[in-house]
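#random but structural
TW: two for the price of one
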Amino acid sequence: MAGHEVAAGRDLAVSASGPGVAAGVIHGNVIVAAGERERIGLPVRLAPRPGELAGREALLAVLRERLSGAGGPGAGEPGAGSAPRVVALHGMGGAGKTTLAVEYAHRHRAEFGVVWQFAADDRAVLEADFARLSALLAAAGGLADPRDPVGSVHAVLAASPVPWLLIFDNAPDPAAVREFLPGGGPGQVLITSQHGLWPAGQGVEVPVLDGEVAALFLVSRSGDADLAAARDLAGELGGLPLALEQAAAYALAAGLSLGGYLGLFRLRRAELLDRGEVSEHPASVTATIGLAVTRLEEHAPDAAGLLRLLACLAPEPVPVGLLLSDPGLVSGLEPEVADVLGPLLGNPLAMTDAIAALRRYSLITPAGDAMVLVHRLVQEITLGQMLAEVAGRWRHAAAVVTEAAIPPELALPGMWPACAALLPHATVVLDLTGAGIWRIASYVGYSGSYAAARDLFRRIAEAHERAAANGGEHRDILVARYELASWTGQAGDAAGARDLFSALLPDMERVFGPEHTYTLTARHEFARWTGDAGNVAGARDLLAALLPIEERVLGSDHRDTLKTHHEFARFTGQAGDVAGARNLFAALLPAEERVLGPEHSYTLAARHQFATVTGDAGDVAGARDLFAALLPVEERVLGVEHPFTLAARHQLATFTGDVAGARDLFAALLPVEERVLGVEHPFTLAARHQLATFTGNAGDPAGARDLFAALLADTERVLGPEHPETLNTRRSLEYWTKEAGSAG
């Protein structure tokens, strides 16, 4: 960035006093003239102070500590043997590195004698700047050797009686400025660079702005108080300071509100990113980021290919190693893409080299273990530099590697971390009618996000319906409808799931046949949700009729058969035969552990039900101990907020044997269930019911009455007025109303 220069006490230059230097002392190729104690003007070249600087106080404090902190050599204090402190501010183009450096210099200007800002992106310009500074230093009291201006400057700075500050702006990399950095003297050196890899202890990353800080900046800079529009726009711009300033400046110039600019931006993103220059940064966002992308393509084509792939994904952390692990994927790529991406597939060293190249240009940032993050505007501009046909090939490649990375078995919790990392990218690049998005949607449900799974399967079902209207496979619609119905029930709408399966079953029987696996599982689900919607005896009888068919068609050890045994046992207990249910679960558990494994989610669910019916059969202490043993396993395997884990906490509280303790456990559990499952989920309503019950049993009948009164209205609305849980809640309200009256 070009600044203005001042010498001999003019404008920003300030005089510095200090002891004279003895005549004839030689420092390299410069001879410092003899002098007496006097005030002299020292050279200053520094860009004007930035305007509004949002969200950077913490970084400025870090700079202050790193550049002038106490202890060790080079702390900015004069003295023989002192060494300059060096900090390299690095980050993506437009992050505000130069602005930060210039603001630091202005804040602490009075502490320095020499302050000089070099343009470090061109060696010839950098050498010319040193010659200019050398001449000015000579005029201020030193004798310079014009044949070695760099050495002359270094020598004067090494012998300086006062601290100094040099800024090397926009350095390409450490090697480009290494020989220009002073080796001694009471100074501070600030480097700004897009290069992301600096020696240990030198690098300080300049990140984009936090969303709320970015929104408040837009409000302040534009004068428009529409904070909602500012937040949306800040999100679209990814908090990049240059983009924020450019947007605010353009909106002001064009007389647009933030909402108006946001609407225009969503229609004409590329054009707006390429215009709206700001005074402190003459290049647009597109030019700034595009230059880094172009340089990458010239020097590291494999890394440029990886960037194109990453640009097609979501602006979320990317598990690069997971995506590029299979070399066999090259056969599924377009030839032009395969030539560039192929060398990275299954080659961890080549992949690491490509990531390092991207980091050198600050086009990605590390985002945790084996993850990288690409800013949304880097993605936008990278895609914008490609022809539409070329971008299409890379989007296809992103879909190929993402789908291949999704694990095949989604009910196993060990697969969930990989799926969680792939989820945002899968929803962006995968076709809604493909197998990959189906597996991802199943993971969403198995991992406990029932409502999200329902919503994603609704989109999948609608996509299959559209495809079928254009000649697609009608069978896929039925299976998608099955998943939608199942996750509708898991999300808390048992009656809705029952009705969806009731409508689906005749179509399943007609298309697949009455004994096809899909048809049998649909019968199972219809029975299950019939029971959960309130008809437990009907569900038990439906499952009793289904079991012999599944055992004959699928086998007694098939997981679907085991699931039907599970639900039959559950509804047997709910229909009144608690002892029979306990015996059924006791027989089922060894089979599930043998077939599925002791930590499979179905096995854990069977352990849960066995513990429940143990308590319902009267063995409260036994149920408590079973849940106390089950809970840490579920927390470890499924996670502390998985619905199964929350259900185990619920039952442990129920059977804890301590009335006041149970009340407190439910009081702690309820807000978690409301946040994770929703305030109207049946599990949440059940927790409210238990909290009210134990509140009354602990001696507060009026509190129980009030809790049940509030619960009844919600239960009637969510489950229906005749659901068993609604009837139970109504009876409880009547009981505690009488108890509260008697107590009064």
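TW: number two ↓
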Amino acid sequence: MLATDRVRYVGQPVAIVVAEDTYLANDALELIDVEYQPLTSIIDPMNALEDGAAVLHDSIGSNLTLRTVSAGGELDQAFTSADRVVTETYHVQRLAPAPMEPRGLLADYQTQQDMLTVWDSTQHPHEIRDHLVELLHRSEDSVRVVAPDVGGGFGEKAALFPEEVAIPYLSIMLGRPIKWMESRQENMLAFHGRGHTVDVEAAVNNDGTLLGLKVSILADLGAYFFMSTPTVPVSTSHRITGPYRTPAMSVEVKGVVTNKTPTGAYRGAGGPEAAFCMERTMDLVAQELGLDPVDVRRRNLIPPDAFPYVTPTGLTYDSGDYEPTLDRALEMADYADWRERQASSPDSLIGIGLATVVKGSGALSPRLTDYARVIIHPSGDVTLHTGLSPHGQGTATIFAQLAADELGVDPQRVEVLCSDTDVVPTGGGTGASRGLIAGGTVLHLQLKEARSALSGIAAHLLDCPADQVAMEDGDYFDQSDPSRRVPFPQVASAAYDEELLPPDVEVGLDFSGMNTLPRSPYAFGAHVAVVEVSPDTGEVNLLKYVAVHDSGRIMNPMLADGQVHGAIVQGVGQALVEGMSYDSQGQPVTGSLLDYALPTSSTMPDMELDTLETMSPLTPSGLKGIGELPTLAAPVAVANAVMDALSSRGIRHIDTPLTPDKLERALRSSRPHSPGGVAQGGTDAPR
């Protein structure tokens, strides 16, 4: 939990001070003197693999700590028969999740009850409980974890951090409640996302048909593995195919430890990394072949009659109809008009960028399993328990809506309880767009059971067969005589009165259970970004942004739009301004918000959004996730737009973030070329 013989990254906890107030703690920190002996820094993951490189963990004996290969199809034949091979190396930079509120903990051990209660800003309270049971050698019923409302998680708060074990341990040792609150600078150095260097070789025909892919992913994992650290690069390797038919491919992953902050799942968790490389490659294919990027994508999109579709890396896409979503995005963006304007104004650096992406919801087991409970009280009030642990997704609102629609109860009379291991016995928490997919599905099943029980009671009260009972405007009625009605509260009350119940029906209305989806449903999105780049300063002005998503049935359009807005802003931040940088000694150069830029309202244009609905056969209502999908498309849609604008200057690729300084230097060293994103070859700009 603390560094002992060696500190392996800036930000690693070294010592803990416990005091009665913050001021005393800070004074005590000043009295601690740590003697450091400088060691060779391991910063560049490529150098970390060289013979003779310093080794970060002597017990392992190598800095290569993860290696996988995923392959499928006749790859050699694909490259032998291809008309052209398009290659590029992409660096997907490290990002700081920067939640609105940093992490925090309060642990309170009650000696007499031998009870440890921990309030933790985590996305997974049940997982934290299970880890504390294991690491502190306690029984499950002696540990309670509560996750209160906190400002954002984004994957960072799904990890298990040293403080989450050390603070409860100290509370037990001292018999006192212990509180710890993370500073913003500590947060910036505690966890990072992304950090991949990816080599892509795409074998294509002259018409843009994709025949095969060779991909090599070098992941800078940081100094240690958090719970999701190895998952992300492996997920990237599986997701690299995107929404395209890819007959053959091979993807190798090498994960390397370095003297940097550990990495893990950050909104999308492998999806944005994969989509960035694939979508940049599709644009480069179009550029080298003199084709429109739209045509290249159309030619390679998986057709609707191919579902369920199995990718060469083993993923199964459940359903989809991609072209209508792409068509709608192009229509809303006035794509053809912008292309004409670009062609008629060769001196203005206008660029149009596309991204078409897919994203699974709920990740893999156990993320596809969750718990729900429905309790209908005699008063007609309803309590819902969910294993989710929401962080701003609007779960309470939409679950109350589901209950209202299914049961006929006023949404104001529905209470949703979550994020407390004493109230909800098990749950998968939040992450991987699993809210409505895993949590909503199991709740749907419990509500169906409750509805069936209510209909049976209503039939008894109405003296009619149960299959003749229907519900409308909060009343249960006899379909053969709609004037005969009983309101929902009356039916709920009757459930607790033996004299009013049908024979052999138990008193009460309490339904609970678990459910596991067979696999993840896959959603699709098409984004179009239009930018103008200043030839003098390199500043990027976002002129238009359109996003259309097919996430199956949309249950609450306002909440869906909110998820999309936030995800696009994070994606634009990755494309234009965000990035963790280190010097050669391992010191973070962007370790605070004084140096690490975040997107602001002035960065964003008005977003034009729409949704289409292709139902998933895997969920009762045809649902697919939407919370992470835009984070795959937004970074590369903007990057493709900027590169499209600069292609007339012979610039082929620049790594994100596409800062004005970086673009201005590239423009100064570039040469004019034909407009419209169809340049042949070109020079690599500074990275």
